[in-house]
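Standup, Tuesday
Yesterday: got the pipeline producing structure tokens again.
Today: sanity-check two examples.
Blockers: none.

Example 1:
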Amino acid sequence: MSRSSPPAKSPLSRRNAAGCGTSFSKSTVSALCARLDPLVTAWNERPLGEQAFPFVLADALVVKVREQERVRSLAALIAIGINAAGYREILGIQLGDSESENSWAGFFTWLKRRGLSGVDLVVSDAHTGLVAAVQRHFQGCTWQRCQTHLAGDVHALRSVRPPHRPGPSAAVGANVRQPGTQSAGDAGDGL
């Protein structure tokens, strides 16, 4: 006589059970998502014209999406605005085929159509498509490389042997933490 063991739970089911004290069936998750979709869409399409956002942070995250019985990678484009009072707000999230200039251009056009205005500074990584779209859609504003991406790129330099990588990373970190342009310039002389 053989005993059958219960079906193994997926890692997601185990995480849900650990975090929520219970697990959810696929149909429950689908039903919850169907109820959330209109709320998320309304939030993501809300007007942005009530205030200016002088500072915008832009980045993308590559996600796996199931479409027509297959899974493919898409770029989740996201922008966070900082208003004049210093409050941050997610301006919108949109899926694009990639981080190409065309994907970013469509994203920025969508944000501007919803009322995004008053942009003086855009901070992002140095992806060429993103930088080109910023220059085209926010003419006259300043673009700045994200310090976190810069530090990560310096740390990953292939020309610096791994045991020596902490030195340049620490130097860049010390430079970006300077309180003003004069001290940053002085610290940069050591790079």
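Example 2:
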Amino acid sequence: MVFLFLSFILKQKASMILKFIKFSYYNFLFSILIIFLINPGIPSRKFFSKNYKIKENQMYYCCNKCNIVAPVELNTAHCELCNICILNYDHHCIWTGKCIGKGNIIFFVDFLISLFLFIFSAIFIVFIILYKQLKI
């Protein structure tokens, strides 16, 4: 049943499948490039310096290494690998070599989705090649 479905798709939609594969590949490259180039959420030292006006009844994060003070709501954390503080710190990605935070989390999600689509389309192509070789 699956082979019949694949043969129908191959005959009808081959150019559309190739366009999808190209789109997912270029989207993958674009998103990883943006992750490399964009600020992950490094706070401005001017705004978050020790001279920052502290409001009463609000909790603050104070980093002794970076000398910044930030409200806890901003989820600021210090990355030991990059040696910087990041707003809305998620993690340090070993695949991109950068911290993932407020500035690049959307592009990181796009990177993951496009990576999944690209891998899925590559598996689909291998399946098509095997199907053509078996000629069922």
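Quick observation on example 2: Strands lie at 60-63, 68-71, 77-79, 84-86, 91-93, 98-100. The mean pLDDT is 78.
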